Amino acid sequence: MSMDRELLMGVIEAGIKAPSGDNCQPWRFRLLQDGIQVINDGPRDTSLYNANNIASYIAHGALIENMRISAATIGRDTVIRLFPSGGVDGVVACLEFKKSDVKADRLLPQIERRCTNRRAYKKTPLPGNAAEALRGCAGSIGGGEVFLVEGRTEMETAAKAASLNDRLLFENRRLHDFLFEHIRWSKKEAEECGDGLDIRTLGLNALQRMAFRAMRQWQAVRIANLCGFSRIAQSGSYRLCAGSSALGMILMDGTSDNAFVQGGRLLQRVWLTAASLGLAFQPMTGVTFLIQRLRMAGGEGLNEGHRELLRKAEKDLLTVFPMEKGRAVIMLFRVGYAPEPVRSLRRAAMLME
Fold first, then answer.
1. What is the Cα–Cα distance from 348 to 12, expressed in whole angstroms?
2. How far lies 75's CA from each of 9, 79, 95, 99, 105, in Å?
3. Helix, strand, or coil (residue 249)
4. Which of 133, 160, 163, 165 lies closest to 148 in space, CA to CA?
């Protein structure tokens, strides 16, 4: 192995700080002579959001971008080959590192700082330079675009659509069960597992945390929904969304697997840029993943009533963002200003022989 193992492991350590759905971390690695194979760990994300592995591929793209940034700072250019064997063996990418000059990347420090912030945001407008910087990230990844909306009417329309996800979470058992399987109910459990969602990251007060714990049982959710619980959850999500500085969407040309991985790379640059500007950031993209499940898999796993709600949400989002068919919807997100949150942890990198 001509590239030192310690250097390769350092690049992987930077990589795994990338985001993934419910912090499930769907990746494994194989060390090569001068590079790293990135392998999709399919059983780690079996959620309805992950139609055709698109959520996992976005996470892999974010991971790859972290690794590329990290490698540049130790004098390595990264050659990225996506799906070198057509994806049949689970290999998402082969990264080859070639010696070059050391290139300092201003986003490197943000790899540690970047996190999901689920707190309520201040209704403070984004300064023009911040909006310009976020949109400008698209120039680094071909075929991508970053859209931001800040007007109240557009934000309320998009927030209404995005908040549907929180209703469906408590009306669809598969969505509910996947989420609660990934909740870590104490600091100790979060540290032992190194994955999933530490309950403290959800931004809940003591009363909300007690209610949320009660919702672990599906039967309790069904009873609570008779009193409108799922719609109350949607209302709370709407207020968070609509009360942000801006809502954004990342789109890529095409709907190939490559487009979703490349979109994940762009997502990570947007998120790291937001962190560098002192902005809080939260994905609100569950509903767009479910819309893409309608497009790709006919809505398998969703009842017809929920499919109809998603079709309506899609129409609403299309009045705000150009997410027409033929484009990969990578991320719907909110940005703004908020206190620092608790951060999710990471498990050790899983290596394959």
1. 10
2. 15, 13, 15, 6, 11
3. strand
4. 133
